[in-house]
TrEMBL record:
Protein known as: Peroxiredoxin
Native source organism of the sequence: Blastomonas natatoria
Lineage: Bacteria, Pseudomonadati, Pseudomonadota, Alphaproteobacteria, Sphingomonadales
CDD domains with a match to the protein in the record: PRX_like2
SUPFAM superfamilies documented for this protein: Thioredoxin-like (SSF52833)
Superkingdom as given in the UniProt entry: Bacteria
Length: 214
C-alpha cells in the first residue's frame, strides 16, 4: 500500500487539531468517499491528458512542454489558505535539491487567483513551476474536483474563509489534493489522490519513482 504523509507528521503550526473542525472534516470526507470522489483520476500506467495552463506569471505552459526535459512531479493543491497544503508544499521546498538530484522538477497546480499563486513560490522555491487552474477546469476534467456542501460552506464563511474571493468564482469547488509523477511520454508513473485532504503522498516514495525513471 502506498505510504502517506499525514497531517500529524507536519510541523505543529501546519496542523488543525481543533476537535470541532476534525469532526466536520471527518464527516465531509466520509461523504466524498461514499461518492467515490477522485475514483476516476488518472492511474499509474495511464496517459495523463495534455493541458495548457497559465503559470503564476501569465505564461501558458503545456504538459508536453513541461515533461520535455524529464519527469515532473505534478501536485494539485487547494492553495496557500490550506494549512495542509502549505505543509506539503513546504516539505517539497525543503527537499527540492533531492528532487533535482533525482532528475525531477515540481509543478504544482492551484485554482487561486489575485496573485496568490505566485506566493506559493516562497514555499516551494524558484525552481518550481506554479500553474493556475482557473475555475478548477483541469481538476474537474481529470476527476479531482468536488463541490462543498452547504454545511461546509457555512462553516468556512463563519470563520472568514470566502472561497469565492480566493478562487474568483461562486461555484464552491475544491480540488482533491493529488500527486503524480509524469514521464516524458506523459505516462503516469505514480499516482496518489485521497479525498481526505489531510493525507498526502510520501515524498520519499516519489523520489524513488523519479530516480528509477532516470
Amino acid at each position: 500500500m502506498t505510504n502517506a504523509l499525514r497531517l500529524s507528521d507536519l510541523p505543529h503550526e501546519c496542523r488543525d487539531t481543533t476537535p470541532e473542525w476534525t469532526s466536520v472534516y471527518d464527516a465531509f470526507v466520509a461523504k466524498l468517499r461514499d461518492g467515490a470522489v477522485a475514483a476516476t483520476a488518472p492511474k499509474n500506467g495511464e496517459t495523463f491528458p495534455d493541458f495548457c495552463l497559465p503559470d503564476a506569471f501569465g505564461h501558458y505552459r503545456s504538459l508536453a512542454e513541461l515533461v520535455a526535459d524529464g519527469p515532473i512531479v505534478l501536485s494539485f493543491n487547494r492553495g496557500g489558505w490550506c494549512s495542509a497544503c502549505r505543509g506539503e508544499l513546504s516539505a517539497w521546498g525543503e527537499r527540492r535539491e533531492v528532487l533535482a538530484a533525482a532528475g525531477g522538477r515540481l509543478v504544482t497546480i492551484t485554482g487561486e487567483v489575485g496573485g496568490r499563486a505566485a506566493q506559493l513560490l516562497d514555499l516551494v522555491g524558484p525552481e518550481a513551476t506554479i500553474l493556475c487552474d482557473i475555475d478548477h477546469g483541469l481538476a474537474l476534467a481529470v476527476g479531482l474536483a468536488f463541490r462543498c456542501d452547504a454545511h461546509l460552506q457555512a462553516r468556512y464563511l463563519a470563520c472568514g474563509l470566502d472561497l469565492a474571493d480566493i478562487y474568483g468564482g461562486n461555484g464552491w469547488i475544491l480540488p482533491v489534493p493529488a500527486t503524480f509523477v509524469i514521464d516524458r511520454d506523459q505516462s503516469v508513473r505514480f499516482a496518489f489522490a485521497d479525498p481526505d485532504f489531510r493525507i498526502r503522498a510520501d515524498p520519499d516514495e516519489v523520489f524513488a519513482i523519479v530516480s528509477a525513471i532516470g
